[in-house]
Structures are given as C-alpha cells and as structure tokens.
Amino acid sequence: MSMHAAAQSAMYSAMRDAPDRRPFSRETLRRIFSFAAPHRRRLVMFLIASVATAAVSVATPVLAGQVVNAITNSRPVSTVVWLAVLIAVIAVAESALGLFTRWLSARIGEGLIYHLRTAVFDHVQRMPVAFFLRTRTGALVSRLNNDVIGAQRAFSGTLSGVVANLVTLTLTLVVMLQISWQITLLSLVLLPVFVIPARRTGVRLARLSREAADHNAVMTTRMTERFSAPGATLVKLFGRPAEESAEFAGRAGRVRDIGIRTAMLQAVFLNSLTLVSALALALVYGLGGALAIGGTLDAGAVVSLALLLTRLYAPLTALAGARVDVMSALVSFERVFEVLDLRPLITDRPDARTVPAGPLILEFDNVAFGYPAATDVSLASLEEVAVLDSRGGVEVLHGISFRAEPGRMIALVGTSGAGKSTIAQLTARLYDVNSGAVSLGGVDIRDLTADSIRAAVGMVTQDGHLFHETIGENLRLAAPDASDDDLWEALRRARLEPLVRSLDDGLDTLVGERGYRLSGGERQRLTIARLLLAQPRVVILDEATASLDSTSEAAVQAALAEALIGRTSLVIAHRLSTVRAADEILVLEDGRIVERGTHPELLAAGGRYAELYHTQFDDETADAATDLTPTGS
C-alpha cells in the first residue's frame, strides 16, 4: 500500500468514528465466531497467506539496496543478475500470494454473506404479519444488504488487514532499525503530521457524508413512493408537479454542493499528505546521503530505507484506524443479530401434527384476541423511530364462538372495524388467539404445523396482491408443480382464460408491480384462479369480489360456488347480495357477534342486519349492490 492509499484509508476510517463508543459483549463475539466456524480452515489459510505476503513485501526493498551496493562496489555482473532474478521471483511469489489471498478472501466473505443473508431471510419469513405492518421495508432490506456486507468486511478486510499490517510494521521496523536507527527514529517524527490531519479531516467529511446520506435517503424514499404505479397515479391526480420538482431539486442541489466541498477537502488533504510523504523521503535521502558520503552508510542502504519508508507509514496509518474498523464491523454484526433475536410470535410446537385428512370443521370457541404491541414484534431501528409504541394488547374480539362445517358457507358482515378480517387472519393462523381456541378438524391450530395449515386453508383478500412476475409464476405460488393445463383450467373457472389467451405472451405475461398492468377486476380474478388451483379444504373470501363489476362478479360467483362445493367456507361480505344464500350469517359489532341466522331470519328479526341491508338496498335496486360497507378489520 502506498502512502497515498494509506492516507485515503485513514481518512475513510476516521469518517466512521461514530460506532467507536459502543460497548460490545462477549456474547456478540461468541456469536460472530459461530458464524465464522464453517470457514475456520480457510480463515487460518487466509491469515497465513496474509503474513507470508507481508513478509515477502519487505524483502524487495532490501534486495534493491543490495543491487545498488553491488553496482557501486563493482561486484561481478552475475551478482547483480542473480539479485535481479531473486527480485523477480519474489515479485511473482508476491503476486501469486496476492491472488491466493484474494481468492480466500472472496470465498470467506461471500460465504459469510450467504450464511448471514439466508439466516436473516429465513428468520424474517417466520415473523408475524404485525412485524411487516410496522417495519419500513427499506430499513429491513438494508439489514440484508449494507449490514451483512459490513459484517463480512470484519473477516475479509479488517481481520486480514490488522494481521498483515502488524507483520509488515514489525518486519519493516526491525529491518530499518538494523540499517540505521537514527534515520528510522527521525522518520517516525513525521508520523503525527501524517495521522492527525486524517482524523480531523475525517470528522468533517463524516458530517458532510451524513448530511448527504440524509438528503439521499429522503430523495430515495420520495422516488420509491412516487415512481410506483399507485404513487404515480396519485401524483397525477392530486399532486403538485412544480412543487415536487422544486423540493427534489433543492435536496439534489444540496447534495451537489456537499459533493463539491467533500471533493475539495479530500483533494487538499491528500495533497498535503503527499507533501508529507515527499518531506519524509527528502529526510531519508538527505540524511542518508550525508551518512553515505561520510562512509558510515552504504548507498544501497539509503535506497532500501527510502523504499521501506513507504511500507512503514502505510501499516502505521491503517492500524491507527483499525479500532474504528473493528467497531464498525461489530456494529454491523449487532444490527444483524438484532433482527435474528426478534422472537417470532407464531412457531410450530415440538410435537406439532399435520391437519387431519378429509373435510374439515372450523370452530371458534370463546375466542378473545388483541393485536400485539410494537415492542413484541418490531424494532425501533426498523420503524425509524426513537422509541417503539408500547400500546397494544387491547382486545378487538370478545367471546367469538361459531362452527363452520364442510359444504356450508358462514358469512361475516358488519361495519368497518367490527373484526371480520381479524377472524379470517386467526383462521389462517396469521396471529394466535389470546384466549379460547380456533380448531381445524377438532384440533387446536396451535397444535398443527404451519405448512399443513397453509395447505388446508386458502384465502383471497380484497387487494388481490400479485408479485411483479408472470401470470404463470403468480399462479404457481399456490401449486409449484402445476402444469400449464392446470393453470389454464384455473383461469377458465375464474372466467379469465379468454383475456390471458388474448395476450401476446399468455401465461408468460408480466403483471407489473403489484399487478398494476391488470385492471382491479382482472387482478382479483387472477387471485381467485390461484385459490382454485390450490384446492384448499377451508376457503376464506375476504371481500373477494369487491373489485369486480356486476358482470364479472356474477361470473366469479358461479366459479366460487363450484369451488366451494364440499368445502368449509368463510366469507366476509362486501356486498350483502353476495351472502344472502349463506347457511349462516354472523353480524359483528365492536368485536362481538350480535346476531346470527339466515338471510330471511335476520331480515325478519329487524335488527342490525336488517338495518345494514336496507341502508345498502332500496326497493327498486334490491339486486344491485352499492359499495357502502368498508373493508372489515
């Protein structure tokens, strides 16, 4: 490493001085080494190769000095030639060691990234829905990218750098002191001039970098929100393009100005250190030359000292910032462990069993439930708040009891916030009840495996979410092994086959972000096709036809009626006309079942259901649903 490169390294380390003050436990270090355990053998080889590289790098300046001495002392040509050959061999060896070290570094670093990323990804997938409702997606993705890579640097960069620099520094000092202890000590006098400005300039650059990062984060957030399909539509409908552009331009201009100041600070700093480097070399040549002329030092020794000097300042400067590098890596590890330490609320019991075979009875027995507090499911750093909201646990369902049998449809109706969607989420075990029990086939779902519940229970929600993938890939989420014929059959039953066949790419058509290349009704019918493909034994329709026009709704209702034959079904009503044929209708208010019965029975009772029905329909349009009932929660 040259003195110029060392200056840049020192400045970079100084810019990351914030984590320097944080304490770390032995448990953190133990967990770090547990992740490194699979790479133990390569780590040992890596450290040995780093030491060998450092040792070889010191040999070249010494041999260069001997070449000069051989020339000045009129030694035989063969001596010079053999020294040159030896220098060439060392150069080849150094190059080979460098490539080998880089290969080991890549294997260790990428292997560590792989294990950390897969560990975090698998753990996050086990987190409850409440976690994703609170967490900022960008902050979570950053843990999988920036922090994992920062942790990886601890092994592929910091660890090897500290070892190599310590070896290089020790060997260089030993050789320089043997050649001339006077010149070596005088050279060290310039070290504070080399290191102190790096740290002071680094602090100023850190402030500028943080400010630029803040502005960039805001701009990234705005772009992410406004360049998505729904965001762009909202801006075009209600936004103020001129004001939006002015605000964005203001932040971009500030980042530009910070970039200019940063570039100038770096240029002044690096030029100053280049001057210090030149002064150090001048000292060696001046004092060393005088000693050589006086006969107390060989000319070759002066050359060796000059070359060794560049190998002295570089590791000294790097080691000066090593503590910051180590702390930065530890911070990254702690941020990764912070996510891994979040306890999933929904886990399989050790003795969990699969859902019983055959038709299933769904039963709620005196169920009470309250959504968990943020402190139970989230992290302040992932929500980007100072303190987590401690509120939570307030019951939203009270004493819910009902029984849904195979071949029968149970409908849930009520105003917004009554608890309809909460019941659906408890059925799919997206949450666990606080008291009471939800059972499938007579078994508490807390005693069943999550995989078997997913296979037995299918749900279609109102938003009809799709991934930015092809129609075929979105359908195969429900049945990965399904053939194209199976997909076309599901599309036919969902009354979507003609549309998909009319597309140029058919099943290979990309649906766009969240499926926004399709209309709302088309998206919903595609999610219904996905449900039909899964063939679950318990079907939950949470406002499943809310986005359909009357014609599409009639077609899909026919498809759903076919799909529900012999299955246990739970339907959350958006339009009361869709549940008039239900075997039992449950009317919810404030998390309680206030009425239950068939459509004629509830109308005759003249209670809450009759009020909702007559509000939504009048005598002339009894068969035309008006979308007045908000989504249940």
TrEMBL record:
One of its GO terms (cellular component) is plasma membrane. GO terms for molecular function: ABC-type oligopeptide transporter activity; ATP binding; ATP hydrolysis activity. PROSITE patterns: ABC_TM1F, ABC_TRANSPORTER_1, ABC_TRANSPORTER_2. It is a multi-pass membrane protein. The chain crosses the membrane at residues 80-100, 154-173, 179-198, 263-285. Keywords: ATP-binding, Cell membrane, Membrane, Nucleotide-binding, Transmembrane, Transmembrane helix, Transport. CDD domains: ABC_6TM_exporter_like (cd18550). It is found in: Cell membrane. Residues 47-328 form the ABC transmembrane type-1 domain. Gene3D superfamilies: ABC transporter type 1, transmembrane domain (1.20.1560.10), P-loop containing nucleotide triphosphate hydrolases (3.40.50.300). Residues 382-615 form the ABC transporter domain. Its main location: membrane. Belongs to the ABC transporter superfamily. Lipid exporter (TC 3.A.1.106) family. This is ABC transporter ATP-binding protein.
